[in-house]
Amino acid sequence: MESTATKTAEEEAPPRFTHREIMVTMSGLVIAMLLAMLDNMIVAPALPTIVGDLGGLNHLAWVTTGYILASTAATPIWGKLGDLLGRRVTFLSSIVIFLIGSVLCGMSQNMGELVGFRALQGLGAGGLMVGVMAVMAEIVPPRERGKYQGVLMAVMPVAMIGGPLAGGFITDHLNWRWAFYVNLPLGIAALAVCWFTLAKLSRGTGKARIDWTGAALLTTWISTLVLITSWGGNEYEWGSATIIGLAVATVLAFAAFVIVEHRAAEPIMPLAVFNNRNFSLAGALSFIVGFAMFGGVTFLPQFQQFVQGSSATNSGLLLMPMMLSSMAVSLAGGAVISRTGRYRALPIAGTVLMAIGLALFATMDIDTTSATTSLYMVVLGAGMGCLMQSTMLIAQNNAPLRDIGAATGAATFLRNMGGSVGVSLLGSLYATKLTDSVSSHLDPAAGASGGQFSVAQMTPQALKSLPETVQHVFQQGVTDGVGTVFAWGAAVAAAGLFIAVFIRHVPLRGFDSAAKPGAAPEDTDRNTPAPASAG
User: Fold this and answer.
1) Residue 517 pLDDT more than 70?
2) How far apart are CA 343 and CA 486, in angstroms?
3) Predicted confidence band at 246 (pLDDT cuts at 50, 70, 90)?
4) Residue 97: which pLDDT band, with cuts at 50, 70 and 90?
5) Alpha-carbon separation of residue 437 from 288, 356, 482, 489 (angstroms)
6) What is the pLDDT of residue 530?
7) How buried is 36 (Cβ within 10 angstroms: 0-12 exposed, 13-18 middle, 19+ buried)?
8) 407 to 70, 81, 136, 279: CA distances (angstroms)
9) In the chain, what percentage of residues exceed pLDDT 90?
10) Using the 8-state DSSP alphabet, how is residue 140 labeled?
11) What is the crossing angle of helices 60-85 and 19-54, to 10°?
């Protein structure tokens, strides 16, 4: 019995990395995360040119939907494959798949090819995000992870601000295909660094029994759910046969998935991790964060461009206060967690700040200045900084080390699903409120002085050509629509507070305690006392 326990402990004990090795490895992880986050930001400004070149305007939405669908469905699968086959081989494979997809996207000759290759690219992107977090979990113990994860947060402002600028420059001065080819130098650099630095990582359990049935069911119910939120109220009415049929398919596939995962020897998403209260609460909070944050922030550029008169490129720059605030709070929070071992206050403060920030945005009117929205962004960014790494840290700290990849994939999956559902549902609310507001003051099919315009096809440039009275009506409609979106986002964020307060403090474990055989995360953590300064 003792020899078996010792062997198990040795198998589960993660490799030790020095601070220098961690920082070198971090360089590859940062590049990989930048690769995943930068892609959509660069491609977005090029989409109008792509559609004009390849044709197929009716397939435009699928350029984005195909990418999101594939990356969301693949996230938990990549996490589990990392547990089974080893983090190094799966992470490097995801980078290769992403790069192959990028090259093929750049070579596309029609919209059908582009949509298919974007899905392949999304398949690799799903492994990039979960791979970065899972590798971090394997090389740095939770007790020290805060100060390192804060560094990864610095990637977000670079992607949010640099992406639109790079995409606009490539579209205007080069060729839209370089919006995809630009991934190659970054991806090759990430491959080279990670090939050498991740060699010390464990090679997985050695039992490559993949739950293909569970993976197929997971992909099915995720796909149908994403299609419901993407198509409902836009392509099809919510009560249409198509949406109802997709809803039935989602429920049946989800029920079958739960049954299969309970019986599988190596489930693609171990449902046992949800038996831990902290993990379940952190997962629910991740979903709410994704819904409120991504669902709300996505529509801020609408107000900036239509009402405040900013250009598409400048709207990315105007997000800088939010990104810098998020980065500063994340770095400071990570340092506090590493020094004290205390983290429970972060998700509580984060939900409060996020709810306040979104509520402030809901009060905007047509005369709100850029300086005022910048102040609101600082508040919202501070909430994001408190939540982005703390929810992942809590989820990882309360999952067994052997399932850390699947647990990371599940937490990332919930955040992505929250964002997808939030963008889709809030987008429907925005469109409805905008149309109703404009219709109540003006016939959208006939503007003043005989000017013709369509609400659905309005652009900032086209708006400037309309009479001033029509501009004012449309800007008021945008303000009403954005206000409704942020009000709902604030309500959802406030609901997250009731989840955050129930998270209990479980001391962050170190690798020494993680390797003790037979110890659950809570029991293991109690064997590692927090320093006196923890309070």
Assistant:
1) no
2) 28
3) very high
4) very high
5) 28, 26, 12, 20
6) 39
7) buried
8) 19, 12, 13, 9
9) 8
10) S
11) 150
Give the Cα separation of 63 and 47 in Å (integer).
Answer: 9
Q: Please, what sign has the CA dihedral across residues 54, 57, 61, 66?
A: negative
Round the CA-based radius of gyration of the chain to a whole number and report it: 23
CB-based contact 84:265 (threshold 8 Å): no
Q: Which among 474, 448, 166, 441 is positioned nearest to 303, based on CA atoms?
A: 474
**Per-residue confidence (pLDDT) for residue 250, from 0 to 100:** 92
Cα separation of the two ends of the chain: 39
DSSP classification of residue 508: P
Q: Is 452 exposed, middle or buried (0-12, 13-18, 19+ CB in 10 A)?
A: exposed
Residue type at 2 in one-letter notation: E
**153 pLDDT tier (thresholds 50, 70, 90):** low
Q: Quick check: 415 and 289 in contact, CB under 8 A?
A: yes
Contact 337, 391 (CB under 8 A): no
Identity at 207, one-letter amino acid code: K
Residue 184 CB burial class (10 angstroms; 0-12, 13-18, ≥19): middle
pLDDT band for position 6 (cuts 50, 70, 90): very low
| CA pair distance 427, 371, nearest whole angstrom | 26
Q: What digits encode the pLDDT tens for the residues 332-361?
A: 887 777 777 777 888 899 999 999 999 999
Entry pTM: 0.72
Burial 465-503 (b: 16+ CB within 10 A, else e): ebeeebbebbbbbbbbbbbbbbbbbbebbbbbbebbeeb
Among 118-127, 225-234, 275-284, the least confident range: 225-234
How far is residue 169's CA from residue 92's CA, in Å, rounded to a whole number? 30
If one counts every other C-beta atom within 10 angstroms of the C-beta of residue 439, the result is: 14
Residue 518 CB neighbours (<10 A): 9
- Determine the average pLDDT of the residues in 406-428: 75
